[in-house]
């Protein structure tokens, strides 16, 4: 885009209705459309990491997570705009508006399916192996599909409005990974060295395309349209500045509130975390000279897991990884988390709730204050990023969550059951769609999604009808809450005796 063109006017470019009056705030109107969407409301019933019903306590779901990301993202944007040097650079990169960041943050998880990241992995496997969809499933791409394709807002001037009719700036800000699984842009980011974060092809699946991507092939035209105002300002594979803020805010919120949740639930225990961090601090020099094979053999001994994290950061993110910053981050996390928050078990008291709030507020302020902007980011970073020490702190907090929560056998048992549930549900819906005697009795939403998916495909597409049915099933299942997915499988399996109350998912 030429420097002389008005970037704000181009950033408004949508379908012709979303722009509105430049004196007002069309970006705020975008935010309001997102919040009023049924897809946003359903996030209250979608797992973040663990199902709320399984914890017996209040834990974050996708809705509360999205609200926190929006809060943090807006704080980052406003802080950066308050400094002239950041403000000028952000303008050169295509602009930064807190309303855009907030809207994109609220929308970024709209497409996440039941049962959190587990559901995302299971649906991707089923979509590719069972339903024959080359694009598979990806939560970010599904969010983009919702705001551009599957959500129906109504009529305007005699036309049906497909999607949420958002401005180009907000749609572009949703794109953490502004590429498709394969093919766009060219050269595809997965072929670059180093590849941008998320663009790497999974090991053992050379034909699988990028691990993460922001849009399916059916939405690539819209992706290109949303990104057009930023052409010449940032590379095709790079996030917009507002997308970079949203992505960073997502990382911050995720790292902090997952620690909160598992402290409340009683899963994070001071002794286990203290043993891991303190063992590494005492023996960092000895561990640093051990071979990878030796570390693997003694992986369960304290200090080994976090040493492996240090090496992984060096291997994947050499642009920022630094041993001194890593050691400082470990010390800070030990002091604030182990010797602070975890020093007293959560008992539901007012004092315990205050401790959680203090921890969250202190960490959020500290990380937001450490945000900066660079004109020349690494291939694995956006233009907006954390300072090195704080970047390492986020990695260590996320490590604590992965090591002491996600690796637990009891969580694995629960998640394997959820994975089997999703697989059975997809198979049951496919059998229903393939039954010629049931055509007139399909759920109306599923029927509509089949028609939409078929209309998107070129008439010459091989197995067009089958692929349309596959995509419709994925769209349908991804739009359910955790409880709706369970209730629907119960009904399809004949286990539910509540005939009419099951209709809410249809």
Summarize the structure.
Strands 1-2 form a two-stranded antiparallel ribbon. It has 22 helices and four strands.
What features would you describe in this structure?
- With 506 residues, this protein is mainly α.
- It has 22 helices and four strands.
- It has helices at 7-11, 26-35, 38-42, 52-55, 62-81, 84-92, 98-107, 116-129, 139-150, 168-173, 220-227, 241-265, 270-288, 292-297, 304-316, 323-338, 350-368, 388-406, 409-434, 444-456, 464-478, 482-492, and strands at residues 152-156, 159-162, 371-373, 384-386.
- A two-stranded antiparallel sheet has the order 1-2. Strands 3-4 form a two-stranded antiparallel sheet.
- A hairpin with a 2-residue loop joins strand 1 and strand 2 (159-162).
- Helix 5 packs antiparallel against helix 7, helix 12 packs across helix 18 (388-406) and helix 20 crosses helix 21 (464-478).
- The longest helix is centred in the C-terminal third of the chain and has 26 residues, at 409-434.
- It is globular, with a radius of gyration of 23 Å.
């Amino acid at each position: 885009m030429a420097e002389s063109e008005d970037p704000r006017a181009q950033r408004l470019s949508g379908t012709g209705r979303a722009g509105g009056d430049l004196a007002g705030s069309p970006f705020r109107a975008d935010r309001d459309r997102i919040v009023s969407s049924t897809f946003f409301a359903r996030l209250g019933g979608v797992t973040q990491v663990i199902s709320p019903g399984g914890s017996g306590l209040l834990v974050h779901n996708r809705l509360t997570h999205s609200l926190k990301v929006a809060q943090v993202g807006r704080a980052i944007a406003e802080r950066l705009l308050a400094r002239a040097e950041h403000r000028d650079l952000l303008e050169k990169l295509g602009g930064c508006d807190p309303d855009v960041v907030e809207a994109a943050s609220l929308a970024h998880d709209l497409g996440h399916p039941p049962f959190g990241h587990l559901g995302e992995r299971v649906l991707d496997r089923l979509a590719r192996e069972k339903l024959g969809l080359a694009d598979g499933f990806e939560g970010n791409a599904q969010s983009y599909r919702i705001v551009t394709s599957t959500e129906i807002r109504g009529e305007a001037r005699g036309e049906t409005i497909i999607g949420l009719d958002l401005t180009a700036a907000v749609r572009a800000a949703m794109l953490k990974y502004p590429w498709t699984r394969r093919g766009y842009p060219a050269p595809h980011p997965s072929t670059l060295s180093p590849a941008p974060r998320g663009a790497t092809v999974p090991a053992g699946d050379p034909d699988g395309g990028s691990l993460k991507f922001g849009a399916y092939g059916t939405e690539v035209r819209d992706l290109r349209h949303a990104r057009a105002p930023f052409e010449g300002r940032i590379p095709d594979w790079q996030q917009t500045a507002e997308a970079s803020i949203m992505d960073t805010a997502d990382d911050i919120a995720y790292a902090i509130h997952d620690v909160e949740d598992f402290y409340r639930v009683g899963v994070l225990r001071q002794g286990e975390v203290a043993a891991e961090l303190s063992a590494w601090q005492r023996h960092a020099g000895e561990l640093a000279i051990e071979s990878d094979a030796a570390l693997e053999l003694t992986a369960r001994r304290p200090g080994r897991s976090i040493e492996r994290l240090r090496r992984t950061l060096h291997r994947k993110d050499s642009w920022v990884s630094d041993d001194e910053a890593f050691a400082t981050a470990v010390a800070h996390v030990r002091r604030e988390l182990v010797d602070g928050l975890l020093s007293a078990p959560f008992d539901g008291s007012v004092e315990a709730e205050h401790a959680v709030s203090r921890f969250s507020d202190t960490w959020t302020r500290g990380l937001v204050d450490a945000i900066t902007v660079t004109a020349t980011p690494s291939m694995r970073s956006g233009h907006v990023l954390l300072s090195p020490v704080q970047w390492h702190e986020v990695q260590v907090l996320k490590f604590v969550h992965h090591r002491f929560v996600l690796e637990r056998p009891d969580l694995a048992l629960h998640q394997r059951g959820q994975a089997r549930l999703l697989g059975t549900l997809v198979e049951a819906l496919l059998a229903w769609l393939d039954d010629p005697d049931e055509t007139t009795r399909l759920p109306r939403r599923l029927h509509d999604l089949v028609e939409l998916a078929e209309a998107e495909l070129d008439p010459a597409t091989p197995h067009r009808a089958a692929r349309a049915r596959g995509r419709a099933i994925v769209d349908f299942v991804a739009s359910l809450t955790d409880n709706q997915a369970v209730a629907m499988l119960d009904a399809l399996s004949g286990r539910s005796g509540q005939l009419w109350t099951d209709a809410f998912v249809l």
